[in-house]
Structures are given as C-alpha cells and as structure tokens.
Automatic annotation (TrEMBL):
<dbReference type="InterPro" id="IPR008993">
    <property type="entry name" value="TIMP-like_OB-fold"/>
</dbReference>
<keyword id="KW-1015">Disulfide bond</keyword>
<feature type="domain" description="CUB">
    <location>
        <begin position="29"/>
        <end position="140"/>
    </location>
</feature>
<feature type="signal peptide">
    <location>
        <begin position="1"/>
        <end position="19"/>
    </location>
</feature>
<dbReference type="GO" id="GO:0016504">
    <property type="term" value="F:peptidase activator activity"/>
</dbReference>
<dbReference type="InterPro" id="IPR000859">
    <property type="entry name" value="CUB_dom"/>
</dbReference>
<keyword id="KW-0677">Repeat</keyword>
<protein>
    <submittedName>
        <fullName>Procollagen C-endopeptidase enhancer 2-like protein</fullName>
    </submittedName>
</protein>
<feature type="disulfide bond">
    <location>
        <begin position="150"/>
        <end position="177"/>
    </location>
</feature>
<dbReference type="Pfam" id="PF00431">
    <property type="entry name" value="CUB"/>
</dbReference>
<feature type="domain" description="CUB">
    <location>
        <begin position="150"/>
        <end position="264"/>
    </location>
</feature>
<dbReference type="GO" id="GO:0005518">
    <property type="term" value="F:collagen binding"/>
</dbReference>
<keyword id="KW-0732">Signal</keyword>
<dbReference type="InterPro" id="IPR035914">
    <property type="entry name" value="Sperma_CUB_dom_sf"/>
</dbReference>
C-alpha cells in the first residue's frame, strides 16, 4: 500500500515537473502582475510581435519594496529616437515619470522605480518588427545597490554621474535619471561637471539637469536647472544631501554630461558660487552668432530693431531666443550711426554686426 502511494505521489510530482519543464510561458498583450518576481514579455515572444499594437503591463510588488526591471532580451525596430516601435518604462501606474524608452537590440541596465508600482508600455507601428522583449521584474529594497541603467544612491566619498551612453553616443530620448548623493552628517557635497552638452533652450524646457538640496525634487530647494553646452559652475550642497535629476524629451538629443562629486568638510566650504538662474540671459559679453531671415524691421534714429527667424544658431550669446516648437526667433537691436536700409533676406548676425549673406 505504502509503495503504491509512493509511486502515485512520485508519478504526480514527475508530471508536474515535466509539464513545467515543457510548458513555455505564453506572453499576452500586457496584464497585471503582482508578487516578488516574475517574467513579462511582448505578445507572442519570441515570435514576431504584431503590428499597430499597444500593450500595457502593470507590475505591483509588496509595499515598502520598489520594482527593478531587467531586460533579458530586446529586439524592436531600431531608430535613434525610437519613433516607430518602443517599450516605455514608467515609475508608477498612472502619470508616472518615464524612466526610459527603448528599441533596437541594446539592452539597458536595471530600471528601478521609487515606489512599489511600475508600468511598461509597448507600442508598434505598421511596418518592420522583431521578436520583442523579455524582462524580469523583482521586488528590491529602496536604494539597493546594483547595476542600474542610470541614477541611484551614491554614498562613497567621491564618484561620478553621467548620462546613459556616455561617452560613446548621444544620450537617449525619453529618459529620466535621478541621483541621490548622501554625505556624512558633518559634510557637504561638491559637484563639478567635466563635460556638458544638453539640448539647448533659453528656458531649458526640453532636456535639462536640475539640482536640488535635499533628497528629492523640491522646487523651493532647487539650486539650478541647466542645459546647453557650457558646464554649470561648481555646485555645493547646503547640507549632506544632493539630488540630481536628468530628463530628456522625445526629440533632439546631444552628447550628454559627466560630472564628479566629492564630500567636503563643512568648515572648509566656501559659499556657493552664484548660479545664473535659467530665466536670465547669459552675460552680455558673450558674442552671439546666428544666420537668420528677417521678418520685420523698424529703423529708428540710431538703431534698427529687427525680428528674425533663426536659420542656424551657432552661439546664443546674450540674445533672447523665443522658441515655438522647432522654430526659433529673436529680436535684435543694432546700433548704427547711419542706419542702412534693411530688406527681407538672409543675414549673418555676429555681436552687434548685421551683414546680408547669401547661403
Ligand atoms: Ca515597426
Ligand atoms: Ca531633447
């Protein structure tokens, strides 16, 4: 009798193991996933994903933990801005910050949320497809160490922060990186950017680096917001925490940045160098160089006030650039003793000198 039960039990166990071994997970278009760990994949993975599709995966791990997502495989139509097919990973389920947008075959490092929820969205267009993606999610402790796509907790006495792909390629579109630097109680943090090239905009509305005193983004404790191609002045924290956030939108990227931080004793620290608020224009001593098309001009006694649509911005200098979508324009006052007649046409403007030019 015992032997029979033993045989039945073992036969049952064997059948469970063998079905698990033979059964391939079936990947559907999105779904809700809970628990400490699990596998998600594009619809029909490793088969070619369907065209004109959108799938949403919502992952929830136990309270107090955060979600870490690691791609095991990635094969989506390739494009430098991932405009056609892509996987977006969000921090949270609704209105979350996008942690990154991915396509092609280069797998990013682990993507980590701030809370216990993550949303993954995959979109495909009509043409060209691949085998999609396979990713493992797991619940980890907040600030757990590990190889991350970007960002994370930094508590060593010195270290570096850099944009994804640095220095090989431009930073990707649609990414958010957050670094939290923590020094011992009695120390402060010095941050210096060695190289810096982030999509330029007078108000840094598109891509930017924002630096905050404290452990999180907090407008009232913002030290500065930076973009363009000149590195910000060295930054010093008030206390022992510094929070740095890098964000890129879904168009135009640039080289990115690398910065180095170190802890400094509070007593040796000098006052922070004054930072130029982003809404003010750089010092007037900076020359401006643009080629532009004249839209309108008002000739006055000893000056011309001209409005230009910018063809190419070489150096912004002290110009006030207006941006509407991809169209940039500026108003320039040119001082002149005997003002020439300006006509519609193309001009080269270099630091108070206006010349007609033919491309
Ligand atoms: Ca496609
Ligand atoms: Ca951009």
């Amino acid at each position: 009798m015992r032997i029979i039960i033993w045989i039945i039990a073992n036969a049952f166990l064997f059948s469970v193991v063998s079905t698990q071994r033979n059964r391939r997970p079936v990947f559907t278009c999105g779904g809700n996933f809970t628990g400490d760990t699990g596998l998600i994949g594009s619809q029909g993975y490793p088969g070619v994903y369907p065209p004109n599709n959108k799938c949403v995966w919502r992952i929830t791990v136990p309270q107090g933990k955060v979600v870490s997502l690691l791609f095991r495989a990635l094969d989506l139509e390739s494009d430098s801005l991932c405009r056609y097919d892509y996987v977006d990973v969000y921090d949270g389920h609704i209105n979350g910050q996008r942690l990154g947008r991915f396509c092609g075959t280069a797998r990013p490092g682990a993507l980590v949320t701030n809370g216990n929820k993550m949303q993954v969205v995959m979109v495909s267009d009509a043409n060209t497809a691949g085998s999609g993606f396979l990713a493992v999610y797991s619940a980890i402790r907040p600030n757990e160490r590990g190889d991350r796509y970007c960002g994370g907790l930094l508590d060593k006495p010195s270290g570096s922060i850099k944009t994804p792909n640095w220095p090989d390629k431009d930073y990707p579109a649609g990414v958010t990186c957050s670094w939290h630097i923590v020094a011992p109680q009695d120390q402060i943090i010095e941050l210096k950017f060695e190289k810096f090239d982030v999509e330029r905009d007078s108000y840094c509305r598109y891509d930017h680096v924002a630096v905050f005193n404290g452990e999180e983004t907090n407008e009232s404790r913002k030290i500065g917001k930076f973009c363009g191609d000149s590195p910000p002045m060295p930054i010093y924290s008030d206390g022992n925490h510094l929070f740095i956030m890098f964000l890129s939108d879904l168009s135009l990227t640039a080289d990115g940045f690398i910065g180095h931080y170190r802890f400094k004793s509070r007593s040796l620290s000098t006052a922070s160098a004054p930072l130029t608020p982003v809404s003010t224009i750089p010092p007037t001593t900076q020359p401006a160089v643009i080629t532009a098309t004249l839209i309108s001009a008002a000739v006055r006694d000893r000056s011309i006030l001209a409005t230009f649509s910018i063809m190419h911005l070489y150096k912004e200098g002290s110009l006030a650039i207006q941006q509407a979508g991809k169209t940039m324009s500026t108003k320039i006052t040119v001082l002149c003793k005997k003002c020439p007649l300006v006509r519609r046409g193309e001009y080269l403007y270099t630091d108070l000198v206006l010349q007609t030019f033919r491309p």
